[in-house]
Specification:
15 strands, globular, 6-stranded mixed beta sheet, Diaminopimelate Epimerase, Chain A, domain 1, 5-stranded parallel beta sheet
Length: 488
């Protein structure tokens, strides 16, 4: 019995993939081309698979991408390699990969909704939880899939990569169970981590950097949960803590959230709950103040001891267009690249707070029948997903409609990031399928434009000139999804 409780079919697929990957590595294989996504999950997945390849003695080259697009796939074809790995994407582009690589060795490690092709190419190995009746939207991330493969390559040697699987899952906001707890296969991976003393699970105040930053700064930088009049405003947090009666310093030292006594934590929880509820927040948002923390026991660096702060560090690297810095941290760099990652995190948080202030202005978020949306500047393409996520979790956006962010690109296109509430998902909404179908109906997929993702989070790219038609068509498709659920 495997420690993850996966089906025999899933385990066999992983074992076969592991054996075939080992067979790729020979004196005749010059290089294995690895491609992964630019978000925290994709960077963590890349760290896992590249470490596993290095331990096998393989030669590889990694590229981190904002999206797996036809132009990039075509560039890979020109390199004429024989072995390719795609992590945290690939399933939604299976048809393109099949056309581009009719005989080469291809391994896809993905957790997004797969395509239903009439005939799957024999040269392509696809490991995707959806193919084995596991919901990749919430139960396991791209990093988790990469870890499963690494585990079946060598369970003892690669056990130390387990924390990165949790970092990726949290980066993809898969902590959907009560009090921000991982569920499904993610929970099984975490259980193995506890059993093998790789991680420790704790319930505490749900704030990142609880062991690192002064209390006022940690609270002001919190976006999930979003704290009215406190998030993004450290001066207000200082005043709030003073009114509550929680000292900011102990002697000459700034106190952190981890320094608070049990009574102080109880008091802070009560006051923050009242702050949320008094500003039209829901009881669900208020309860999010307490969360589940996943501590990485082998880490000694402050930002890497907790899976959430580790995830934020990787996310900042990707969103500031420095994913290689994040990969270096995943591969073990605790010197130059780790210090640079901390600087990028500060830069990223500053830019996010600036954009959030813009989004708050009346008229920035526009509405149609079934969606709401906003447009941000071209310099912020990599940040649009974060803004959409925060908007969907706060009263910046209405929970009754999905929120779409459009970011102008230098290629005269819009990068789209879409997010939806759990309530809408229960009504039958699936953003990944809706965006993909919208592009198909507009025949944009035939022009090389792609979209896809999960039910609650998805993305894509369209020409700027097609925005109106895109919103109109998406409105119709979302209505069809919800109406179909009501009928059934």
């Amino acid at each position: 019995m495997n420690p993850f409780g996966i089906s025999d079919e899933f385990q066999t697929a992983l074992e076969n993939a592991a054996e075939k990957l080992k067979a790729w590595i020979s004196p005749d294989t010059e290089i294995i081309r690895v491609s992964s996504h630019i978000d925290a999950d994709g960077i963590a997945a890349a760290g896992i698979i590249c470490t596993a390849l290095d331990r096998l003695g393989a030669h590889f080259h990694l590229r981190i991408l904002r999206q797996l697009e036809p132009q990039y796939i075509n560039s890979l074809v020109q390199e004429k390699n024989t072995c390719y790995i795609f992590s945290d994407f690939g399933s939604g582009q299976l048809h393109l990969l099949a056309q581009a690589f009719p005989s080469q060795n291809v391994l896809i490690l993905d957790h997004h909704e797969p395509l239903n092709l009439p005939k799957k190419p024999k040269n392509i190995i696809e490991i995707n939880p959806h193919l084995f009746k596991v919901n990749g939207s919430i139960e396991i991330s791209g990093a988790g899939v990469s870890f499963l493969l690494a585990y079946f390559l060598d369970p003892k040697l690669n056990l130390d990569l387990l924390p990165l699987a949790l970092v990726g899952a949290i980066g993809d906001t898969q902590d959907k169970a009560k009090q921000h707890t991982l569920l499904g296969l993610n929970a099984k991976i975490a259980e193995l981590g506890v059993k093998e003393t790789v991680i420790q699970i704790e319930k505490d105040l749900y704030f990142q950097y609880s062991e690192i930053k002064p209390i006022s700064k940690a609270i002001s930088e919190t976006t999930d949960p979003y704290l009215p009049h406190l998030t993004g405003n450290e001066d207000a947090c200082v005043r709030f803590l003073g009114e509550v009666g929680i000292p900011l310093q102990a002697g000459q030292n700034w106190r952190t959230l981890s320094d608070l006594t049990t009574e102080e934590k109880r008091l802070l929880t009560t006051q923050l709950t009242q702050q949320i509820l008094s500003h039209n927040g829901t009881s669900e948002q208020a309860s999010a103040i307490i969360g589940t923390n996943y501590k990485i026991l082998a880490e000694t660096e402050s930002y890497l001891k907790d899976a959430r702060s580790y995830s934020s560090l990787l996310n900042a690297c990707g969103r500031t267009r420095n994913p290689g810095i994040g990969v270096a941290v995943c591969l073990g760099d605790r010197a130059e690249h780790y210090r640079r990652a901390q600087d990028l995190l500060i830069e990223y948080q500053t830019r996010i707070n600036t954009l959030l202030e813009k989004i708050k202005h009346p008229g920035i978020i526009q509405e149609s029948d079934y969606v709401q949306y906003f447009v941000i500047d071209e310099s912020d393409e990599t940040l649009v997903g974060t803004i959409a996520t925060i908007s969907s979790k706060t009263k910046l956006a209405k929970p009754s409609k999905p929120i779409l962010g459009f970011a102008k690109s230098e290629e005269n296109t819009y990068k789209i990031s879409a997010r939806a509430s759990d309530t809408l998902i229960k009504k039958g909404l699936h953003l990944g399928l809706a965006l993909r179908k919208t592009l198909s109906e507009l025949q944009l997929d035939k022009k090389g434009f792609l979209a896809g993702g999960h039910d609650a989070a998805a993305g894509g790219r369209i020409p700027i000139s097609e925005q109106s038609a895109f919103i109109e068509t998406l409105n119709k498709i979302i209505k069809q999804q919800i109406d179909k659920q009501l009928v059934s």
